[in-house]
Design goal:
alpha+beta, Butyryl-CoA Dehydrogenase, subunit A, domain 3, four-stranded mixed β-sheet, 4 strands
């Protein structure tokens, strides 16, 4: 199923804001989007500072989602204007040494400014900070929001599938009385042919033998077009689909299997058809089953 969710959070990047004379903040953002897929295909886009969190993020998403092409993006803006980063003494010493070496070889190089030093201090604090708790907490929040969005879409899909189940049941009910009618019509046709043959005296066949042959042909015809077994199995599959939709949970793969079985029974029904009305019913069933098959692939 498709879905989208996002969240942002301002996080203090300094371990002790009181000692530093003020707090510096980074903006942590996370967004997740999902489109339809038969399996879980998860791709992560993380800043280099958070690359080590990829296994934990995969576990967090995989615990909630089982199907779908999912893309998770994490952004980290260390230059968020929620405070001023306080450069450490070690960083200042390094910058002085780097600038001295640079100006020695490049006298025309522009000296570092205060803004440059603050930005580097923010980056240093961001890289030294342990982001795992904040990122995983935000990930759980976003995945939960995505799950709610997918649940709403799933409820709509469930309603659609239930309506298709009812339509298929109605078609099966229409097909059920057709076969006995066809068998009776064909039996009468065979008997009439037998009577005509007897009136013309064709073939020198005894009346009892011709009558038995006509009844045998009618019986063979009845066996050949009998779809009672297919309709029984089709109704059984529809009952199971309705039960799974009512129960909920991870039912997507089971529904896919049942849809395949429905398609098999509808094909057999069409191949055994001996009347235009039964052929029409089989075609209508295939259309409904195909609509269900397309949507079932989106269900968790």
């Amino acid at each position: 199923m498709t879905g989208y969710a996002s969240a942002q959070r301002s996080v203090n990047t300094q371990a002790d804001a009181a000692d530093s004379g003020g707090a510096a903040f980074a903006q942590l953002g996370l967004e997740i989007r999902c489109v339809n897929s038969r399996f879980l295909d998860l791709s992560l886009r993380l800043p280099e500072d958070l690359r080590q969190l990829e296994p934990a993020l995969r576990d967090a998403v995989g615990a909630q989602l089982k199907r779908g092409k999912v893309e998770l993006r994490v952004s980290l803006d260390s230059a968020h204007a929620g405070g001023v980063a306080d450069p450490s003494e070690a960083l200042l010493k390094r910058l002085v040494q780097v600038q001295a070496r640079t100006t020695k070889w490049l006298p025309q190089a522009t000296p570092l400014g205060v803004a440059d030093v603050i930005r580097m201090a923010a980056n240093e604090q961001s890289s030294q900070r342990d982001w795992s708790a904040d990122v995983l907490s935000l990930a759980q929040e976003v995945v939960a929001a995505l799950a709610h969005a997918r649940a709403r879409e799933g409820a709509r899909l469930c309603e659609m599938l239930q309506s298709r189940v009812q339509e298929l049941r109605a078609l099966a009910a229409q097909a059920e009385p057709l076969v006995p009618q066809l068998v009776e019509q064909q039996r009468r046709r065979f008997i009439e042919r037998w009577k005509d043959a007897m009136a013309l005296g064709e073939g020198g066949v005894a009346p009892e033998t011709a009558h038995d042959r006509a009844l045998a042909e009618a019986t063979a015809f009845a066996i050949r077009i009998d779809v009672a077994e297919e309709i029984t199995r089709l109704n059984s599959h529809l009952e199971e689909i309705a039960r799974l939709l009512t129960r909920g949970g991870e039912v997507g793969k089971r529904l896919e299997f049942l849809i395949q079985e429905l398609h098999r029974e509808a094909n057999t029904l069409g191949s055994k058809s001996a009347a235009l009305e039964l052929t029409r019913i089989a075609v209508d069933m295939k259309v409904l089953i195909e609509q269900m098959r397309e949507q079932v692939q989106n269900i968790e």
